[in-house]
Amino acid sequence: MNDRVSHLAAPQLSVVIPVYNEEASLPALFARLYPALDALGLRYEVIFINDGSRDRSAGLLSEQYAQRPGETRVILFNGNFGQHRAILAGFAHARGEQIVTLDADLQNPPEDIGRLLAPMAEGFDYVGSIRRQRNDHWWRHVASRAMNRLREKITRIKMTDQGCMMRAYSRRIIDIINQCDEMHTFIPALAYSFAQRPTEVVVGHEERHAGESKYSLYSLIRLNFDLMTGFSLVPLQLFSMLGMLVALGSALLFVYLLARRLWIGPEEGGMFTLFALVFFLVGIALFGIGLLGEYIGRIYQEVRTRPRYLIAAVLEQSSEVTHD
Ligand code: UDP
Ligand code: MG
Fold it and tell me: Which mutation among 51, 103, 205, 217 tests ligand 1's pocket best, with the greatest number of atoms within 8 A of CB?
């Protein structure tokens, strides 16, 4: 019995799954996830975080909890706080030595969790994933490749496939993440910045099992802005460099025009060149103000120090209780 208690208290593996309006995917997820984890032959827990779903997800999760109370824990949020905060809540509750994050929509096969764990056994502490075959729209391919390259330059965070949430982290990384209290973050990037030995493996990729993607092109662009301003000051620093160059350029132009006026006389018909130049400068200035705004917005969100999420209830067995 003592064995049983300690086993409940300390699973080896925690699987963290954020859930938002996934009633259509959940039954298939349960049917594949638990057998896949059982097959690994280790002590595990699955932590579902219901991110304020408006469909039957919460009900399905509590049914699943009733069926597998020993391995299942469900955190019910009091509203929609977003995927990354849901994962953070899962991390705060996770007890495993290894922590795997997974989406609820079965885009990454749960059967591939073992692939992520293999490098961890060899001493890697961050195992990212690359989708084997991308079934997304072509524009996503092009956009994500371009974004990746830019992001890698600016933030020094190497992620071949930032869209893939199926990743494994060591307990050490999760402990550090649990100490961070930033409001807006992108988990794979945050974790990467703490990793000592990161690596990546290839995992399977399928179409979303059911339901709709919660992300649009707009939020993809947003995410990348957040990544760059959230993990690096380089955009701001580059911009001051650019400002300096532009100022230097306009100073030279001013000297040139002045000299021309003195020696050649007043210029005629230079009006439109001047307009073009002014619009160009105004454009740059507006972009700079926008960029400043990104950082100020971040500071604003952080200084409010509102709670990152509100938990309505947690369904879990207390670690003292055994159920047989
Ligand atoms: N998700 C969430 N809160 C949200 C949006 C999404 O918890 O506000 C969950 C969603 O249920 C899924 C995961 O985050 O498990 C990824 O969402 P989605 O599949 O819509 O993103 P995509 O795969 O299109 O990037
Ligand atoms: Mg998805």
Answer: 103
**What distance in Å separates the CA atoms of residue 242 and residue 244, rounded to the nearest whole number?**
5
Contact between 228 and 155 under an 8 Å Cβ cutoff? The reply is yes
| pLDDT at residue 21 tops 80 | yes
What is the dihedral sign for C-alpha 263, 268, 274, 276?
Answer: negative
Say if residue 218's pLDDT is above 70. Answer: yes
Q: Is the pLDDT of residue 118 over 60?
A: yes
Nearest to 288 by CA among 237, 230, 222: 237
Residue 136 — left, alpha, or beta (φ > 0 → left; ψ -120 to 50 → alpha)?
Answer: beta
- pLDDT of res. 8: 53
CA of 104 to the centre of ligand 2 (A): 7
Helices (H), 156-233: 171-179, 187-194, 217-231
The token pair that represents 265 in the structure block: 């006389």
Q: pTM (2 decimals)?
A: 0.84
| 57, 105, 186: residue to mutate for ligand 1 pocket, most atoms within 8 A of CB | 105
Ligand 1 contact, 62 CB (< 6 A): no
Q: Which atom of ligand 1 is nearest to the CA of 165?
A: 16
pLDDT at 5: 45
Nearest to 226 by CA among 296, 294, 306: 294
Kindly report the average pLDDT of the chain as a whole number: 88
Distance 323 CA to ligand 1 centre (A): 33
Give the integer Cα–Cα distance in Å for 301 and 285.
24
Round to whole Å and give the CA distance between 185 and 34: 29
Give residue 24's Cα distance to chain centre. Answer: 23
Q: Among the listed ranges 3-12, 82-91, 185-194, 300-309, which one has the minimum average pLDDT value?
A: 3-12
Highest mean pLDDT among 44-48, 148-152, 292-296: 44-48
Report the helix count and the strand count for the chain, using DSSP H and E.
11, 8
